[in-house]
């Protein structure tokens, strides 16, 4: 299969190459694509060196599949151009997610929404993916009325420039001595600020979690109350999640549901200090859940802790899984 990765030199683009290799995706011709300033650089894929090319050149070579991680602006401009030459696009940016004509897919939750007419498919936000993977089967059985979620998101979610800022601060450089990505120091700090603030006081990141939850679970009546924060962590995003159900439940039934849910790993033995942590989620594809307990303040409520590598399942792995789903459905060629 002729496969393009657009944004190949970025943090997520690099991980996409790794995931394609690890999962033995059927790549017969690889097209690494990046912005003009990166054209001519070399990347390694499948043990071979490839020269980065422009989007225009990649489009002229008519790939079967393009996986995008180049930002909303690039996706807006380039995704339709790839689609016009018969290429299936899986886009990791926020641009197409809430378009009513575009599908927003987590393969373990809503694979049925894809049709032969879908040439641009949206990959959900990383924090939404890891939250909904354990929530979807619970919603099916108990019906979720309300979600209150607070996120503790890794600097890797902001890309290489954010990681460089934190590393500079850990080297002892003072504010102003390095090129800052965030409006404040991030090391030994927490920023309750991810993406831009909106008129309603929430950030775009927070409203992504609201809107994407409604679209993926196909239930606009679920109440979603998010607060997102950036923490000085490399490894993954963590989330404190509170759910209120319409029906009663047993905690052991919830654990059992999670244990039988593909992509979810239960780490829930607090007496022995077993619970999910981002340091140990790094490089893994599962969503890890633990600290499960009843919420005594409501009739049918729980609290739990949720961790996942945001660059893997939250971005690269989910995108490749969508591509695998397209093959399974016969929408991409089997070579």
What does this structure look like?
The chain has two domains: 2-124 and 315-328, NAD(P)-binding Rossmann-like Domain (Rossmann fold); 127-310, Dihydrodipicolinate Reductase, domain 2. It contains nine helices and 14 strands. It has helices at 11-22, 55-60, 72-84, 126-142, 160-170, 204-217, 251-259, 278-281, 312-328, and strands spanning 2-6, 29-33, 42-45, 48-51, 65-68, 88-91, 103-104, 120-122, 144-153, 223-230, 237-245, 264-266, 287-294, 301-308. The longest helix is centred in the middle third of the chain and has 17 residues, at 126-142. It is an alpha/beta fold.
According to CATH, the fold-level topology of the largest domain is Dihydrodipicolinate Reductase, domain 2
* Shape-level CATH architecture of the largest domain: 2-Layer Sandwich
Portion of residues in helices?
25-40%
In total, the number of domains comes to: 2
State the total count of DSSP E strands.
Answer: 14
Helix/strand class: alpha/beta
Radius of gyration: 20 Å
Question: Tell me, what is the CATH class of the largest domain?
Answer: Alpha Beta
Distance between the termini: 6 Å
Tally of helical runs: 9
What letter string, H or E per element, gives the SSE order? EHEEEHEHEEEHEHHEEHEHEEH
Residue-averaged pLDDT, rounded?
97
């Amino acid at each position: 299969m002729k496969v393009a990765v657009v944004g190949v030199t970025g943090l997520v683009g690099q991980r996409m190459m790794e995931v394609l290799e690890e999962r033995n995706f059927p790549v017969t011709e690889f097209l690494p694509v990046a912005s003009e300033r990166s054209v001519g650089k070399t990347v390694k894929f499948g043990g071979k060196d490839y020269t980065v090319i422009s989007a225009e050149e990649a489009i002229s070579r008519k790939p079967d599949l393009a996986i995008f991680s180049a930002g909303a602006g690039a996706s807006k401009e380039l995704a339709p151009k790839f689609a016009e030459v018969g290429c299936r696009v899986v886009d990791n940016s926020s641009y197409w997610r809430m378009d009513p004509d575009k599908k927003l897919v987590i393969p373990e939750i809503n694979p049925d929404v894809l049709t032969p007419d879908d040439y641009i498919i949206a990959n959900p936000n990383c924090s939404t993916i890891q939250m909904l993977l354990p929530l979807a089967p619970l919603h099916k059985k108990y019906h979720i009325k309300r979600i209150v979620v607070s996120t503790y998101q890794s600097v890797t979610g902001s890309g290489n420039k954010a990681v460089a800022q934190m590393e500079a601060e850990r080297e002892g450089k003072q504010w102003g001595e390095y090129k800052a990505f965030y409006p404040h120091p991030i090391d030994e700090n927490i920023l309750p600020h991810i993406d831009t603030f909106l008129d309603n006081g929430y950030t775009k990141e927070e409203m992504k979690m609201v809107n994407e939850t409604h679209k993926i679970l196909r239930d606009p009546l679920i109440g979603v109350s998010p607060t997102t924060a950036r923490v000085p962590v490399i490894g993954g995003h963590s989330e404190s999640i509170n759910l209120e159900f319409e029906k009663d439940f047993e905690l052991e039934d919830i654990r059992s549901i999670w244990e039988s849910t593909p992509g979810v790993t239960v780490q829930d033995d607090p007496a022995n200090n077993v619970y999910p942590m981002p340091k140990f989620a790094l490089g893994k594809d599962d969503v890890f859940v633990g600290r499960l307990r009843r919420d005594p303040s409501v009739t049918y409520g729980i609290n739990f802790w949720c961790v996942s590598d945001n660059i893997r399942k939250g971005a690269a792995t989910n995108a490749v899984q969508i591509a695998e789903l397209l093959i399974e459905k016969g929408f991409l060629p089997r070579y």
